[in-house]
Amino acid sequence: MKPIGIYPGYPGNMNTASTQEITPKVGICILNYHEPDVTLACVQRLLEVEGPEARILWLENDADKTLDRALAVLNASSLPWVRIDPEVDPLPPAGKVGFISIAENLGYAGGNNVGLEFFHRHGVEFAWVMNNDTLMAEGSSRDLVRAAEKDPGIGLWGTRIRADHIKMYYGGILQLRDFSIKYAIDPADLDRTRLTYISGCSMFLRTSLAKEVGWIPDDYFLYYEDPAFSLEIRKKGLRLGLCPEVEVFHLESLSTGNRSDMMEFYNRRNRWFFIHRYFPEYLANQMLKRWYHYQKWFFRGKFQRIRIEHLAMRDFANGRLGPTHRDFSRSGKPRKTLDSKA
Predict the structure, then answer these.
(1) Where are the alpha helices (DSSP H) in the chain?
(2) 3-state helix/strand/coil string of 127-139
(3) What's the order of all strands across the beta sheet hosting 180-184?
(4) What is the CATH number of domain 2-250?
(5) 295: Cβ contacts below 8 Å, ≥ 6 apart
(6) Which of 9, 49, 63, 252 is the most exposed place for a label (fewest CB within 10 A)?
(7) What is the pLDDT of residues 117-136, one digit of tens each?
(8) Could you tell me the residue ranges of all domains in the chain?
(9) pLDDT for 67-109, tens place per residue?
(10) Virtual torsion, Cα 83, 89, 94, 98, nearest 10 deg
């Protein structure tokens, strides 16, 4: 498949899956945001690996702006797909990808929740949320189902994730000194500290549990929703787990731009809301540390960092969650939209 070539270092040494089981047991959510060629490569690989026990959804986020391009890519491909209205249509048939249009940009959580709710409504027991910029490298959803059925005390499963810059990780560990995140690579950390979470890049759970905890927290819009989701599942007395038989290859930060201003803004804004919700005892100390960072950035000439942190704090102080009214372009210059407020 030509689209696979966009993933540097992708191994490509995978086995095709058996298709003996026919009962839909797993729903796979793939959220596309302005990258249909990348999403096409992802779902093509999934169709090769997954059997008829799985159903795959292409969730077209921001479809009012992206639908024509996405349909052009699909129609030019050999991908078997069917368009679905999630309110009235059944599951897609085995071997076909279901295409759901989401008119506006609901963000990572809101877009994937459309798929999770659809699968739950149709009685699909498990769901696997995967980033669109991933490719299956080893294993399949059958490995995840076996792991989940063997240990029902685990509510949320992760997989091995590989990227160009890191050999393997499965999630992240929050650092209490500043609530930054480092990669989680040791499975023992899952039981060692509640600060460890499963990455939203590849996470697997029962759809009934997703509904019970209120779905993936969608008010963050982008970033920090996966540690919040892991904490909500831990609150139910369930553990987190890793399925080492499954590995995905991940090309990170494709839709937001690697270390773009938009990425920095959402990370910093949502970090404040996350601390306030889950670790309020640390909030005052983090507020004080902010002034130290301002001083450090000023003397290093990092004025854009100061601006981004200031805007993030302003939104936190005003309770502004969801999509920002500020437009951060990939060129790095934040612009205000016509309806924005200072």
Answers:
(1) 36-49, 63-76, 107-121, 141-150, 189-192, 207-212, 225-235, 261-278, 283-299, 303-317
(2) EEEEECCEEEEEC
(3) 180-184, 171-175, 196-198
(4) 3.90.550.10
(5) none
(6) 9
(7) 999 999 999 999 999 999 99
(8) 2-250, 261-336
(9) 999 999 999 999 999 999 999 999 999 999 999 999 999 999 9
(10) 30
